[in-house]
Amino acid sequence: MRAAVLHETGQEKLEVLDDIETAGFGPGKVKIRVRATGLCHSDLSAMNGVLPQPAPFIPGHEGAGEIIDIGDGVTGLSEGDRVLLCWLPACSVCPACKRGQTQLCLAGFMNAGTPNFKRPGGDVFGFAGTGTFAEEVVVDAGCAVPIPDDVPFDIAALIGCGVTTGLGAAINTADVAAGSSVAVIGCGGVGISAIQGARLKGAAQIVAVDPVASRRESALKFGATEAVSPDELADAKQRITAGEGFDYVFEVVGKSATARTAYETTRRGGTMCVVGAGAMDDQLQFNMFELFFDEKRILPSMYGGGDVLTSYERAIALWRAGRIDLEGLITHRVRLAEVNEALDQMRTGVSLRTCIEI
């Protein structure tokens, strides 16, 4: 089968090969025919080494498709079921799951170190234990979440990561208050979803911050009341909040510099929500006096900060009701053979989400 492979961490281009086979199928596993996958910035971060991932690997973790085979012991799923892929399934038995913090379950991360593909040259890993830039993938049964027949594969794929992450940051983690002021730094697919979440929660002012003009224009269509470049953020803070700072600031870039800006843009007693996934060696500094004196809440948000299965159902319900726009997030479409075009679109910022049709 065909798949897009990164041979070594740090390479900028993927090679589409046709000698890939799935591996690891057996009890508790399912094989999925991938129909659509989104390109998430986390895929780029894994490719350049910001996020740890053994190589060679097949990127992609935001996908949807159909089950084509089921291993022994799998219940609740059948061949032909339409599913989205959950890259962070809950095991239900670890301490985090028992506390109700299923988004902190580490079971899914263990899958990243087990190859689920192979080729004549050896084993190939799937990013985050999935690897949706492939025609087929073998995953734990818990990674396959059934979707209703009226949800297209491309929409389901987005719900599998970016939409759930952004909406959840605003709704679950920050719990944005009605009438509040919000700034979102970084307006790709996840940032736009955070904007939609803040709008749903009733925020009065939502300022989108991004260096790319087309993304700022898009943010206004999704619910931002104003869109500014990073250089204009300080002026927006002064105009909108009289210099006090925003009630909520979402950092959706994953860099210490933008996180520091987010902190400084948050009012005293306000909430800074860290959504972007950054590098382990990128240090963010605070002094002990400001932490004490400002009393700002610093809330990291992992995968939307809540039970992902509930979050999936909520996103589908909101989409059906016309309360959120998911079709509009897909600004570009390519075939698997054109995957490197999708990477360029993400790197230059011209896309919110590129859908790769497998």
In summary, what is this structure?
This protein is α/β, with parallel strands linked by helices and 358 residues long. The chain has helices spanning 41-47, 95-98, 107-110, 153-159, 162-173, 189-200, 213-221, 233-241, 256-265, 288-294, 308-320, 339-348; strands at residues 3-5, 15-17, 21-22, 29-38, 57-58, 62-70, 82-85, 117-119, 122-126, 136-140, 144-146, 181-185, 205-209, 226-228, 246-251, 266-274, 297-300, 330-335, 353-357.
Question: Care to describe what's here?
Answer:
The protein is an alpha/beta fold. Helix 5 packs parallel to helix 6 and helix 5 crosses helix 11 (308-320). It has twelve helices and 19 strands. It has helices at 41-47, 95-98, 107-110, 153-159, 162-173, 189-200, 213-221, 233-241, 256-265, 288-294, 308-320, 339-348; strands spanning 3-5, 15-17, 21-22, 29-38, 57-58, 62-70, 82-85, 117-119, 122-126, 136-140, 144-146, 181-185, 205-209, 226-228, 246-251, 266-274, 297-300, 330-335, 353-357. Strands 4, 6, 7, 10, 11, 18 and 19 form a seven-stranded mixed β-sheet that branches. The protein has a six-stranded parallel β-sheet with strand order 14-13-12-15-16-17, with helices on both faces. A four-stranded mixed β-sheet has the order 3-8-9-5, with no helix packed on it. The model has no long low-confidence stretch (mean pLDDT 96). It is globular.
